[in-house]
Amino acid sequence: MPRLDVPRSRLLWQSKKTCPLGQISLAGYIRNGRGISLTRLRNFNNFALVYLLKGSGRMKIGSQPVIQCRAGDLLFVYPGVPHGYGPGPGERWDELYVVFNGPVFEFWRQRGLLNPAHAQQHLAPIARWRPQLEAVVEPGLPSSADGMLRRVCRLQKFLADIIQEPEPEEVHVPWLEIAMNELVKGAGTPPIILARKLGLSYETFRKEFTRQTGCPPARYRTRRLIEQAGALMTERHLSNKELAETLGFCDEFHFSRRFREVTGQSPREYRRQNAARLP
User: Fold this and answer.
1) DSSP at 1
2) What is the rounded distance in angstroms from the CA atom of residue 52 to the CA atom of residue 56?
3) Backbone CA torsion sign across 156, 137, 127, 65
4) Per-residue DSSP letter, 202
5) Strand pairing partners for 120?
6) Which end of the chain is more exposed for a tag (fewer CB within 10 A), N or C?
7) Which domains, and CATH codes, for the chain?
8) Helix (H) and strand (E) counts in the chain
9) What is the pLDDT of residue 278?
10) How far apart are alpha carbons 126 and 51 in whole angstroms?
11) What one-character-per-residue DSSP string does 148-164 give?
């Protein structure tokens, strides 16, 4: 079955919890989004990151010229700065967004590390940067002030990584897309066998794959399969047994255990929570 690159529109995280440094208040996916009007700019009271996963479009910040956007662009939204973004006619827009605020981010802004004059940065490959941004709102962290502190620190680490590095050029790794597809296709090729098929030592394959995608091959496979499972649960209403067979897990109990490890919820809890959110 084909790999689902962008999950269906859904909320990943929402919380009113705070910590002394700040707060991650909202995060989620939007597929085929319409964005924010470029003719009636929005004034937002929070910072936000919008990572364009698929498609293309435009962004406008205050009186600055319109910016052209493409997949892999990270867009920065600043409190009190009018903005708009979204796809143009005939274009599509799939995004991962994170909304945040607090004194530590205001300090970053005061020191010029977050600057409204720099509203766009290209982060490629997406397979590397997307998992790092997803980790900021990982559901496995506690929903407490301590958990919020960890999330804020993870977001600062993400910002530090992208600000310290020059805008990366897209580096073509010939075998990377093949490896990503093979890992999640059917029962999946074990990483050690996949490395041999690609003509690489396992250690070289594992290190380079981790550098490019942000996580080791086995973890990447599990995360993408669980992502597919979440979509199949809501779109096709498959049972745990059917999901295990479709996605190559040895049985439904192994699938349920892995699902909880990745999402922090049992499949039953996930279905109940998302039933009311998804159309």
Assistant:
1) -
2) 8
3) negative
4) H
5) 75
6) C
7) 10-164 (2.60.120.280), 176-275 (1.10.10.60)
8) 10, 8
9) 42
10) 9
11) HHHHHHHHHHHHHHHHH
Task: Determine the 3-state secondary structure of 224 from DSSP.
Answer: helix
Q: How are the residues of the chain apportioned to helix, strand and coil, as percentages rounded to the nearest 5?
A: 40, 20, 40
Q: Which one of 83-87, 185-189, 225-229 scores highest in mean pLDDT?
A: 83-87
pTM of the model: 0.60
Helix (H) or strand (E) holding 68: strand 67-70
Tokens representing 160 are 């530090």
Write the pLDDT tens digit of every residue in 16-38: 999 999 999 999 999 988 889 88
Are 238 and 232 within 8 A, CB to CB? yes
* Amino acid occupying residue 93: W
- Are 223 and 233 contacting, i.e. CB atoms less than 8 angstroms apart? no
pLDDT tens sequence across 116-147: 888 999 998 898 899 999 999 887 788 889 99
Q: Which residue in the block uniquely carries the two structure tokens 């990584």? A: 161
126: left (phi over 0), alpha (psi -120 to 50) or beta: alpha
Q: Tell me the two tokens of residue 124.
A: 């490629």
Kindly compute the dihedral angle of the four CA atoms of residues 145, 146, 149, 155, in this order, to the nearest 10 degrees.
-110
Taking Cα atoms as reference points, which of 34, 220, 214, 7 lies closest to residue 124?
214
DSSP character for 26? Answer: E
* Core vs surface per residue 182-205: b (16+ CB within 10 A) or e: bbbeeebbebeebbeebebeeeeb
CA–CA gap between residue 132 and residue 128 (Å, rounded): 7
- Measure the CA–CA gap between 106 and 113, rounded to whole angstroms: 10
Closest by Cα among 254, 258, 250, 253 to 230: 258
